[in-house]
Design goal:
This protein is an alpha+beta fold. It is built from 5 helices and 8 strands, in the order E-H-H-E-E-E-E-E-E-H-E-H-H. Helix 1 runs antiparallel to helix 2.
Length: 184
C-alpha cells in the first residue's frame, strides 16, 4: 500500500458524536412539540406548527440514525475533514470539547466568516497527539470564548433529560412503590 507522504496524521471516527437513545427521549421530544403546538394553535399562529414539527423530525432522525464513519487527515496543506480540505492559511485556532463520551475537535477559521469544523476524536491519546501536531500550525485554546449562541445551546441541552437520570428516578419510584405496597 502506498502511503501518501503529505499526510501527517489520519484517523477514522464517526461524523458526529452519537449516543443511542431510548424511547424516553423520543417521548420527551414529542411531548414538548405537542405542548408547543397546542399553545401556537390556540394563539392562532398555525404557521409556526411547521417549523416545530420539522425540528421534531430532525431530532428524531439524528437520534435514531448512527452517523457514518469518516476518515479525517492532517496534511502538510491543512486539515481534510470528511473530504473537505481546510488550508492552514484560512484557519485561526482550535479547541476541544466533550459530548456523549467523545472528544470533539473544533477548528475555527479566520474572520470574517469564522467557519467551524467539528471532528470527533475517539481517544485521549489521539487528543494529545492532535494537540501536539495542530499547535505547530494553529493557536490552541484550552477554554474557548463562548458566544451568546453557545451559551444558549448549553442552556437548552441542560434542559433535555439524560437517560441515566431518568432511569435513576424510575428506579427510585419503583422502590418507593414496592415499599408502599409492602407497608399496606
Amino acid at each position: 500500500m502506498n502511503e501518501n507522504p503529505q499526510v501527517i496524521f489520519s484517523w477514522k471516527a464517526p461524523l458526529r458524536p452519537y449516543k443511542k437513545r431510548s424511547g424516553i427521549i423520543l417521548r420527551f421530544y414529542l411531548t414538548v412539540a405537542l405542548l408547543l403546538s397546542l399553545i401556537m394553535f390556540f394563539f392562532g399562529d398555525k404557521i409556526l406548527l411547521i417549523p416545530i414539527w420539522a425540528l421534531v423530525f430532525i431530532f428524531y432522525v439524528l437520534t435514531i440514525t448512527p452517523p457514518p464513519e469518516v476518515e479525517n487527515k492532517i496534511t502538510t496543506f491543512g486539515v481534510d475533514a470528511a473530504g473537505v480540505t481546510l488550508r492552514w492559511e484560512v484557519l485561526s485556532h482550535f479547541y476541544f470539547g466533550k459530548r456523549f463520551g467523545f472528544y470533539t475537535l473544533t477548528i475555527v477559521s479566520q474572520s470574517p466568516y469564522f467557519y467551524h469544523a467539528y471532528l470527533v476524536v475517539p481517544t485521549e491519546e489521539m487528543k494529545k497527539k492532535l494537540i501536539t501536531i495542530l499547535s505547530t500550525h494553529l493557536l490552541y485554546q484550552e477554554t474557548p470564548h463562548k458566544t451568546i449562541t453557545d451559551k444558549m445551546l448549553d442552556w437548552l441541552s441542560a434542559l433535555i433529560p439524560d437517560e441515566e437520570e431518568v432511569f435513576k428516578e424510575e428506579g427510585l419510584q419503583a422502590v418507593s412503590e414496592r415499599l408502599r405496597r409492602a407497608s399496606l
